Amino acid sequence: MPLILRLMKTALLVLILTSSRSDVGRQAFEQGRYTEAESEFSAAVQQAKSENSEADLPVLLSNLANTQEALGKFSEAEANYSSALELSRKSSVTANSLTGLGSINKALGRYNESEKDFARAVEIYKASPPLEPAKLSVAMSGLASIFRLKGRYAESEETILKAQSILRKAGRAETPEMASLDNNLAQLYIATGKLNRAEPLLRRAVATWRRSLGAEHPMYAAGLNNLAALYFRQKHDRKSEPLYREALAVHQKLLGPDHLYVASDLNNLGTLYAARHRFTEAAGFFNRSLSIREKQPAIAKPERLINLSNLAELYFAQKNYGIAERYYKQMLPLLDRQMEMESPVLAQSLEHYASLLKRQEDYAEAERLLAQAMRIRVRKALCE
Question: HEC states along 170-208?
């Protein structure tokens, strides 16, 4: 067989192998089997690299990064998104990589970088026919979430509503992407104290995820968690617990016991049990959640802060001030202006720690903490 034909046959075989692995990986990802998807995409990337298949590599790297992001492997995902972005010659791959980097930067608290990534992705999708409504809506949803986190609520709502309109015009009103937008809009209404407007959106998002993805999918479980959290805020804790437990069971089964989604589920169950004054069980949930998040300290900084605050408040409520102070002290190094989330629990923690410091006659530090607590409460009041 002539050399050129052998090379063409080998190239065709590589293309078939990488395509097959990529297809299997894509199917596994869509079904929420992220570990399997990562394995398939990783093998496809290595195959493409070994055969110098540069045309396929950016797409495969981007797909691998999507999966690693879903698994909470943010360092690996960021590296692969960046590589895909550098190698990409297609606008769709460039935009997808930017959307992924926006998500990573958001998770790491780098909100300015995240906003730039999402905004660039949106611009590219809009300027690159044919329009891809689903991918555009994901980038717009990410941008809207950053606007919300920055307190730019009007821009956040406007962006979400525009993305929803794009999906409806494309006949994609009953899709996971629309569910994500409903969820995002609900989080905006919760942040601004409009709980009654948030509930129907979350219920619709959960129903859409269940219909489109099934009852054993991480996105459906995340929706259950968010709906349960809303019920808890509305004082309907009997509705909350079964949803929290279902979400925890799904996340543990699909993602393993050390995933950040599992940590979130455990923290929420701890909050529920603390409200019932079942302190021993609450402490167990909080500590399990904290142990997961401490394995990824750079990633889960805001969540660790909330965990520590919850533990401190738990022991403060039991008048166990020595243990409470230990958690307050661990909490403070994590708190900076960007981390001053609109959380009454966090403000309360600062106020309680200040009261302990006053007992110790450390009045200067107590006043500093009270000023921080006041900033959080004022910001929260202005949003309601």
Answer: CCCCCCHHHHHHHHHHHHHHHHCCCHHHHHHHHHHHHHH
